[in-house]
Design goal:
mainly alpha
């Protein structure tokens, strides 16, 4: 694997995280606690892999400039800014939500998860969207 392959790897990891989060949500709605727990722990592990890969790539290469024009530029930056802010916000939320689950504080876990889960899904999905807008679409 080459350095230039990492953006695609990162997008894949984000997509896997979103899938695990949605699957975990379905499991908890069906009261399948063990399956829910497995999905959420897997989502944390995949997110951690993503973060390591993302930081490694950007420390080595820097950032990439968006090449779209017109109405696409403000749309891209709206997605990017909201993604970036929520990506920072989600980290402590994820840790607090997990901590409450591991301490069997399930009511507190449930209340916080109602905030954490949609943010985490949004960040994972918009990570894939940003990848496509930066690396896969030919704006010329």
């Amino acid at each position: 694997m080459e350095l230039h392959d990492l953006p695609a790897v990162n997008a894949t990891l984000n997509g896997i995280t979103a899938t695990l989060l949605c699957t975990g949500y379905v499991f908890i709605r069906k009261h399948r606690i063990a399956a829910h727990r497995a999905c959420m722990i897997a989502a944390c592990c995949v997110s951690a892999l993503f973060l390591g890969s993302y930081l490694y790539y950007h420390f080595r290469t820097g950032s990439r400039h968006f090449e779209g024009e017109g109405w696409l530029r403000p749309m891209y930056f709206a997605i990017l800014i909201s993604h970036t802010i929520l990506a920072v916000v989600q980290v402590p939320l994820i840790f607090m939500t997990l901590k409450r689950a591991f301490k069997s504080q399930f009511e507190a876990h449930r209340r916080l998860a109602r905030i954490t889960w949609p943010i985490w899904v949004y960040v994972s999905v918009t990570g894939v969207v940003i990848y496509w807008m930066l690396y896969r679409v030919d704006w010329a």
